Fold this protein.
Amino acid sequence: MAVTDLDKLVKYYHENKIAHVYLIETNNLNNCLNDLKKTIKKLFCPNKYEENCNKCNICNLIDQNYLPSLKIIEPLGSNIKKEQILELKKTFSSIPIYTKNNIYIIKNAEKMNASSANTMLKFLEEPEENILGFFVTNNLNNVISTIKSRCEIIKVFYDNHELDIKTVDNPDNSKYLEIAKTYIYKLEVEKKDSIMYNRNVLLNELSEREDVKKVFHIMVIIYNESLNKLLNLNNEFAKFSDLDYLLKLNYDDVLKRLKLLNNFLDNLNSNANLELLLDKYVIELSDRNE
Ligand SMILES: [Zn+2]
């Protein structure tokens, strides 16, 4: 777990070297948000903060998202709206209670549109002493550059192996795991009518872009584990024993697949047309098989 960069913030804070606003890039938004809240507890816990402090009012309020001086903004629908930023400005025009600073966290900062970003910029240009801001994103490239240029950038990346296995073990994801397995089987073994699989296996079953993303994320996990098995590294490929045929692939084949999957996921984050992306994936995959 790479929480070290967040831990540095505690040090900077006590040395009075903390910036007004940070932009945090992470590969796991929810984990990062939890760790960020932990960092905020460390800054403001009146006791010497210990893991799971439940002695103090402030840590309790942070846990329950009720601390008046901490505002977490998430996209409403597909965007962070100008109104949300105006609301924040209004709330923070008063002096913080309980903590020395007012703190805001903008989750999915890449979802700010031109008008919310503009409103935010005015806020950033007149920084008040007692406001501390955090933008959190899973893709730095998609954050509006005027915001980016005003932030200190830090990266909080998590070792995915453990998280990944949790993803496939989570019963909430069993549907996506089954779809991923079927899709892989069709593409790797059946191989005919490849483009039809996108419709029959994926698009007819999954209504949201986010759902397709989950299936592809699980595919990355599966190919990663097969690669680890191939290399005799620690792996959990036994969990996918019905996909044993993947072990016939050689190292380069698996790497190429992982590369295509990662390209797909990157493009998916950038609003490209879903069907076109899926077709592209299948075509590039079969190109290589010939
Ligand atoms: Zn505490």
